[in-house]
Write a structure and sequence with these properties.
Layout lengths: L5 E6 L5 H13 L3 E6 L3 H4 L2 H8 L3 E2 L12 H8 L2 E7 L1 H9 L5 H8 L4 E5 L3 H5 L1 H12 L3 E2 L3 E4 L5 E5 L3 H12 L9 E6 L4 E4 L2 E3 L6 H12 L3 E6 L11 E4 L3 H11 L5 E4 L6 E3 L19 E3 L3 H4 L5 E8 L3 H12 L3 E6 L11 E2 L1 E5 L4 E3 L3 E2 H22 L1
Parallel strand pairs: 1-2, 1-4, 2-3, 4-5, 5-6, 9-12, 9-14, 12-13, 14-17, 17-18
Antiparallel strand pairs: 7-8, 10-11, 15-16, 18-20, 19-22, 20-21
Bound molecules: cytidine-5'-triphosphate.
The site of cytidine-5'-triphosphate has 15 residues, from helix 12, strand 17 and helix 13.
Length: 401
């Protein structure tokens, strides 16, 4: 049962919309309160009355209709939704959401909501396979939108291929799974760092490392989905900022330190997934160093501050230890020396986990030395396992206070 969860069902102009009436009906039967929002073109296929008849609730279709409530409608709809589902989602709506266009009620709601958003695309196969649509979907996916791949078969236009609205069963299962994600970080402010830092040598060169930022970004997404307010402090990476997360972009370790010190003042937990450069050139040359300048003379390095060790606020501190040898001993000694609550240790010598891949195999070790070896899993799953510990430790802290 979806007991009184508010589900905002957005429907757009695709022939598959008739299946959305059935979806609205099934969700209502399972106890959800379904707010249907129709685009103008959706109303060409079915009438609002069809949805109202199965949801027994008001159907919304225009920014400029006389509002049903006194609040600003697109904001109140966005705020009260536990989840937004757009099924069917046309190529046009997907493109609008990917670029932040908000020119109708549904696109405004998606821009304003902090709830998880699920898209079920339905369109002609060529439109679906077009690079523009695929790029837009990739962008949205990276921002934390869930996308249910369309099915393959005979499409309404007569063509055969991918583009059919996914199975209702699959859409329902994804909705249930999303709504069942515990909101156990509601009211908590979590600061997460991600990516590597870059330490300039001159205007064209820097010292850096292989961190892609994927683990930190997955943590930010997972914490957001569990209801946390998230500040993500990121080194230069190739990933779009997750929706609903405050992203602060920095380049150097010193900039990251300043951003962390500022953010932890009102935070409950700090998770340092960033690979901070331990050293920086003592001085970055103002102009490009030429071969003839004897470059070796310029690389005098100085130590960067250890950011997590310098955080003295009463926040839960979680560190990472990427090691190529003596994994456990090194990780345990970092817990002590950096004053951490627990550490996430990973062996970076294996090819299937660690740097720049989507999976990770980690060991969680706490102050008491107890360890939990997790199997190879996606970085998003690892993120949830780390957050399970954060939730438990925050709860014991609250009990202690
Ligand atoms: N860290 C930090 N500031 C630094 C270096 C590391 O806050 N200047 C944090 C990392 O974000 C990570 C943890 O400390 O959470 C361990 O980082 P790691 O690079 O494994 O450890 P180091 O202390 O740099 O030790 P070493 O490089 O010698 O293994």
């Amino acid at each position: 049962m979806l007991g009184q969860k508010v589900l905002l069902l957005g429907v757009t102009g695709s022939i598959a919309i008739y299946k959305a009436v059935d979806l609205a009906s099934k969700l209502t039967q399972r106890g959800a309160l379904v707010d249907v929002v129709m685009t103008q073109s959706a109303t060409r296929f079915v009438t609002p009355l069809s949805f109202r008849s199965v949801t027994h609730r008001q159907v919304y279709k225009d920014m400029w209709d006389e509002p049903v409530e006194l609040e600003i409608e697109h904001i109140s709809l966005a705020e009260r939704a536990n989840m937004v589902v757009i099924a069917p989602a046309t190529a046009n709506m997907i493109a609008k959401l990917a670029t932040g266009i908000a020119d109708d009620l549904l696109s405004c709601i998606v821009l304003a909501t902090k709830a998880p958003v699920l898209l079920a695309p339905a369109m002609n196969v060529n439109m679906y396979e077009n690079h523009v649509t695929q790029d837009n979907l990739a962008k949205l996916r990276a921002r934390g939108f869930k996308i249910i791949e369309p099915g393959t078969g005979i499409l309404a236009c007569g063509a055969t291929g991918a583009g059919r609205l996914a199975d209702m069963e699959q859409i329902m299962a994804t909705i249930v799974e999303t709504l069942e994600t515990p909101q156990d970080l509601t009211g908590q402010h979590i600061v997460i760092t991600a990516g590597g830092t870059q330490e300039p040598i001159d205007p064209v060169r820097h010292i850096s490392n292989r961190s892609s930022g994927k683990m930190g970004y997955a943590l930010a997404q997972a914490a957001r989905d569990r209801g946390a307010e998230v500040s993500l402090i990121s080194g230069p990476v190739n990933l779009p900022g997750p929706a609903g997360v405050r992203v602060l972009c920095v380049q150097t370790a010193l900039q990251m330190k300043d951003a962390v010190m500022q953010a932890v003042r009102n935070a409950d937990a700090l998770i340092m997934a960033a690979a901070v450069a331990d050293y920086r050139p003592a001085e970055a040359a103002a102009s490009k160093i030429k071969k003839e300048d004897q470059a070796e003379k310029f690389l005098h390095l100085v130590r960067n501050p250890d950011i997590i060790s310098e955080v003295k606020e009463e926040v839960l501190k979680v560190g990472f230890a990427a090691e190529s040898e003596d994994l456990l001993e090194n990780a345990i000694s970092k817990i002590q020396s950096k004053g951490l609550d627990f550490i996430v240790a990973n062996d970076i010598t294996s090819n299937d986990s660690g740097f720049d891949v989507d999976n990770n195999r980690v060991t969680l070790i706490d102050r008491q030395g107890s360890r939990e070896d997790l199997p190879l899993m996606s970085k998003l799953d690892v993120a949830h396992r780390i957050l399970d510990r954060v939730v438990a430790l925050l709860a014991t802290r609250e009990l202690g206070n």
